[in-house]
Amino acid sequence: MASDSSFDIVSKVNLQEVNNAYQQTLKEIEQRYDFRGVKAEILLEEAYFTITTSDDFKLKSIIDVLQSKLIKREVPIKNLDYQKAEPASGGGVRQKIGLKQGIDTEKAKQMVKNIKSLGLKIQA
Questions:
Q1: Which of 20, 47, 51 is CA-nearest to residue 38?
Q2: Please, where are the H alpha helices in the chain?
Q3: Is the pTM of this model over 0.90?
Q4: How crowded is residue 5: how many other Cβ atoms within 10 Å of its Cβ?
Q5: Helix, strand, or coil here: 85?
Q6: What is the dihedral sign for C-alpha 65, 71, 73, 77?
Q7: Cα separation of 83 and 94, whole Å?
Q8: What are the residues facing 40 on neighbouring strands?
Q9: How far apart are CA 102 and CA 99, in angstroms?
Q10: Of 47, 45, 44, 40, which is closest to residue 94 (Cα–Cα)?
Q11: How do residues 98-124 score in pLDDT, each as one tens digit?
């Protein structure tokens, strides 16, 4: 019976918790004094966040708030894929942050190679 044992490796993000953290981030940005009168926007679209604001300092502040809300919701921030910040219209800054779902092909191949090197019978 032990020879028929199997397991699956899954790496997924709970999208409901991501949405809840996003909503909490929006509320905090609206209430914070340092964001009053400043163009600061965060959008959640399918598998990524888009943050647009007036300068780099505000961008880092929004990312910190988002990360703290995700951590409180037990969403691993290792699943965030930070893109390079780019200039936005009106002298602002925009950054996209993707949500990694699953295991990328290269990492999966490396995992299979490591398990096979142990001499175990596997099927990938």
A1: 51
A2: 15-31, 56-72, 105-117
A3: no
A4: 6
A5: coil
A6: positive
A7: 10
A8: 53
A9: 10
A10: 40
A11: 998 877 788 888 888 888 888 766 665
Q: How far apart are CA 52 and CA 118, in angstroms?
A: 48
**Which amino acid would we find at residue 109?**
K
Beta strand pairing call for 86-87 and 93-99: antiparallel
Quote the tokens at residue 87.
């200039």
Residue 80 pairs in a beta bridge with 99
Quote the tokens at residue 6.
């199997």
Q: What is the pLDDT of residues 18-68, one digit of tens each?
A: 999 999 999 999 998 988 888 889 999 988 999 999 989 999 999 999 999
Residue entry with tokens 């191949």? 109
